[in-house]
From TrEMBL:
Organism: Bradyrhizobium shewense
The protein, known as: HutD protein
A Pfam family this chain is assigned to: HutD
InterPro entries xrefs: RmlC-like_jellyroll, RmlC_Cupin_sf, Uncharacterised_HutD/Ves
């Protein structure tokens, strides 16, 4: 097991793929043989971003996306023939990067967390932990993000503090136990396929 604390000053900022905003890149991984780290070499990305006005989402063929509102409320994603309701914070929605999505804001700007992954190469999960309790974490990469102030977790019996807006990146080679002591936290889980 390896645990690394990522602080906000470690994060990078980049434009959305469609240029419509700026996201904060918390952690990511690209193909090992990629000459350039760009959207075409992306394996996975965990990022946060404000959505301050209605508008289209970036077109991302081959990318699966999970998204959750962590600040504000009232976001709905509209796609042809379907919609994804994120009006309540900490609700996870899953959609593909090929969908033509336009956002609707029902109560002002929101802050969202995104976990994106190359389809077929990576499996991802995104959930909010708000109640104290423990769970099993499988082998893989796990990101524990503290969106609203300082949080504490227990990882295999070791107490760890995560400062507000910080992220604990956990690399596991075998299953482990994670307990939320104080939160809420957002847990992103990544498993490379094959």
């Amino acid at each position: 097991m390896k645990a690394t604390l990522l602080r906000p000053e470690d994060y990078t900022r980049s434009p959305w793929k469609n240029g419509g905003g700026i996201f904060t890149d918390i952690a990511d991984a690209h193909c090992a043989d990629a000459a350039v780290k760009d959207w075409s070499s992306l394996l996975w990305r965990f990022a946060s971003t404000p959505i301050v006005a209605p508008g289209p989402f970036s077109h991302m063929p081959g990318i699966d996306r999970l998204q959750m509102v962590v600040g504000g409320r009232g976001l709905v994603l509209k796609a042809p023939g379907q919609e994804f309701d994120e009006r309540e914070p900490f609700t996870t929605v899953r959609f593909t990067g090929e969908l033509e999505i336009v956002t609707e804001l029902h109560a002002g700007p929101v802050e969202v967390v995104n976990l994106m992954a190359r389809r077929g190469a990576v499996e991802i999960e995104l959930e909010a932990l708000r109640e104290a309790g423990d769970r099993s974490l499988p082998a893989g990469t796990h990101l524990v993000y503290a969106p609203h102030g300082d949080c504490r977790i227990r990882l295999d019996g070791e107490d760890l503090a995560i400062p507000g807006n910080g992220t604990l990146r956990i690399e596991l080679t075998e299953a482990s136990r994670l307990a939320l002591v104080s939160g809420p936290v957002v847990l992103g889980s990544i498993r490379i396929v094959g």
